[in-house]
Amino acid sequence: MTQVWRCTGLRWGDGMPVLGWEGGRRSDLRRGKRVAFAIVAGGVRTCVGARGHACPARTAVSGRSTGARCEECARLDRAHSVAADTVADDPRPYHVYLAWFGPGMVKVGITAVERGPARLLEQGAVSFSWLGRGPLMAARRAEELLRAALRVPDRIPYADKRAVRAALPPVEERTAELADVHARAVALDAWPESLERAPFRAVDHSGVFGLDGLARADGVVGELVAGGAVSGDLLAAAGPDLHLATGRGIVVLDTRLMTGWELTTTSGRDETTVPIRELTDPGVQDGLF
Fold it and tell me: How many Cβ atoms are within 10 Å of 191's Cβ, its own excluded?
């Protein structure tokens, strides 16, 4: 009987991406590592559940979904989510941060102080700086203030992030852009009183992600399909994305597409037989191994 694994997603720990698997196994994703798996033929992608609980109906979900949840489980997951602004009484202190993903791509966000920079690594932020620290609702007000006063968004599309990773300006230029937004943000008159301003200190992740010298990707995995396979050498990892050297060129795999599938080994060293779509131009909106 063919052994199968179910991926629980990618996490960043100690500056390294790690894939988790049901049962507790972990796969460290060091650069140069071979990433190879097949999707079980005849399989169906099923909902991953919510808040640590399995989906009671094991509902089938789209292969293109990065959340891999049915409507009911997605609703339950968001009902207790700080990111979805459904939690207002969290007593933990929060950081407000500015994250840089590419020229003209600076966003504002919040993360619990206890998480450190993990949230920035998970989003694929090339560089970032803390902006302030304080209670959750004060951090939220600062987020809203930057969106309204400086037009700094709280989201950057992943398609835009991927499109510029292989053509980043020098670290001095990205630090200068981040510093300019930081200076204008902390100077705003309506800054929440309970939020302590943080000095500008840029942290750069290009080395951690492996972006130095990275060639432009030829395509992006659009979805995984039953009977398909992915195989390639890991060139870089940023957020949930793996840049792989495959038989079809450099392909970006969003590891969020792996959850909900039953996966197994593949014998084809350069076999990548899942749908690949063209990389979107910047600014255009649109244990297995």
Answer: 16
**Angstrom distance (rounded) from CA 31 to CA 16:** 10
Burial class (CB in 10 A: 0-12, 13-18, 19+), 173: exposed
pTM > 0.85: yes
Residue 80, pLDDT score: 66
> 52, exposed or middle or buried, with CB in 10 Å at 0-12, 13-18, 19+?
exposed
Q: What does the DSSP 8-state code read for residue 55?
A: -
For residue 202, give the DSSP letter: -
Quote the tokens at residue 244. 């792989």
- pLDDT tens readout for residues 28-84: 999 999 999 999 999 999 999 998 889 999 999 999 999 999 999 999 988 766 654
Q: What are phi and psi of 219, to 5 degrees?
A: -175, 175
- Report residue 151 CA to chain centroid gap: 22
Decide: helix, strand or coil at residue 229: strand
Q: State the alpha helices, DSSP H only, in 69-123.
A: 71-78, 118-123
Per DSSP, 50 falls in state B
Q: Are strands 203-204 and 127-134 parallel, antiparallel or unpaired?
A: antiparallel
Residue 276 β-bridge partners? 221
Neighbours of 170 (CB within 10 A): 8
Provide the pLDDT confidence category of residue 283 given band limits of 50, 70 and 90: very low
SS3 label, residue 223: coil
Smallest Cα–Cα separation from 36: which of 63, 8, 15, 5? 5
Which H or E run contains 172? Answer: helix 171-186
Calculate ∠ Cα 79-84-90, nearest 5°.
Answer: 75
Q: State the angle between helix axes of 136-150 and 171-186 in degrees (0 to 180), rounded to the nearest 10.
A: 110
Here the tokens at position 195 are 């939020």
User: Is-contact 64 223, C-beta < 8 A?
Assistant: yes
